[in-house]
TrEMBL record:
Organism phylogeny: Eukaryota, Viridiplantae, Streptophyta, Embryophyta, Tracheophyta
Membrane-spanning parts: 12-37, 49-67, 79-102, 202-224, 233-254, 260-282, 333-351
InterPro entries reported for this sequence: MFS_dom, MFS_sugar_transport-like, MFS_trans_sf, STP/PLT_plant, Sugar/inositol_transpt
Protein name, as recorded: Major facilitator superfamily (MFS) profile domain-containing protein
Gene3D superfamilies named among the record's database cross-references: MFS general substrate transporter like domains
Cross-referenced Pfam families: Sugar_tr
This protein's GO CC annotations: membrane
Recorded family membership: Belongs to the major facilitator superfamily. Sugar transporter (TC 2.A.1.1) family.
Topology in the lipid bilayer: Multi-pass membrane protein
Compartments it resides in: Membrane
Species this protein is from: Paspalum vaginatum
Domain (Major facilitator superfamily (MFS) profile) ranges: 1-355
Amino acid sequence: MAGALAMSLGGTYAALMAARFVTSVGFGFSRVIAPVYNAEISPASKRGVLSSMFDMFLNVGILLSYVSNYALAGLPVHVGWRVMFAIGALPPAFLAAGVHAMPESPRWLVMRGRHAEARAVLVRTSDTPTEADLRLGEIMQQAVLAGCGAWKEMLVRPTKSVRRVLTCVVGLQFFQQASGIDAIVLYSPLVFKKAGMSSNSAILGATVAVGVVKTCFILVATLFSDLVGRRPLLLASAAGIAVTLASLALALCVGATSTLSTAACAVASVLAFVAAFSVGFGPLPSTYSSEIMPLRLRAQGTAFSMTVNRVVCGLVTLTFISLADWITMPGCFFLYAGVAAAAYAFVYVHLPETSGRSLEDMEVLFAK
């Protein structure tokens, strides 16, 4: 909230960057804490739906930013961007009010000896009181193992199961960003211009369509991640990303010969790409990562994997234009398609199905 307001009032580049840093710190907290909290508060039968809502509303925010760009395009330039940043202070204001109605994580309560409060939360968030008691017993058993040497256990002397979990978590977060989603989200206007679209209103309209499709298809993952399972959705998503990125690259390769058809093909490929991304690799890495980490390592493991995610995101964002100048824009998307194909192989080889299992049962699954 503070960062958004400061950006709207900023008068220099340094002031804008400082305010952006403040918003990034707050966003970084949410990217680590929200998936962990969602996984820990949710019953196993609904964990996929509830955990994927984080990414769904993240994309609602992205969609609203596209809509605001379109709606504010008619304002004078020196006014429009300030209004846009000021509007960004409203969502965290609602969050600040709503967080007071949220119960504390039962696992956090158990780790501090507050078992009665933990059971009360579990009764509210379980399908039956019997399930609440079972979850409490599993949490208490795992809490005994929790200690202060989490980083050492993860990075210095990991067990076979912890090493396998870390491989899955870090791999998912890496492939989510390395497949080029932020190149599309941030640079889709450049892609559409490269494909032959010249009207700014048409480009902004196509960008809004990207946000709408991306948000709508996350609902597929939200509704089916518990019913179908994490693994099938991730496999379908990786395959779809590879095919649609290759299609986009091919469309851009022939852009000079048929402008209208190329633009239509490029827009269709981008929309298909964000749809494929949103049914699996968009929302599910955070869900999968937070649920497979052992309780004693969950906070540190999630923070570590999210650091990998953000570093790769930054690399893709900062290198896209330079990479496009070096290997051409179609070359970039062929590269990202290859990464998506590697992501498919990674999921197929390394990731077991976790749908319907309790969080405390994950270590048994990954020890096999």
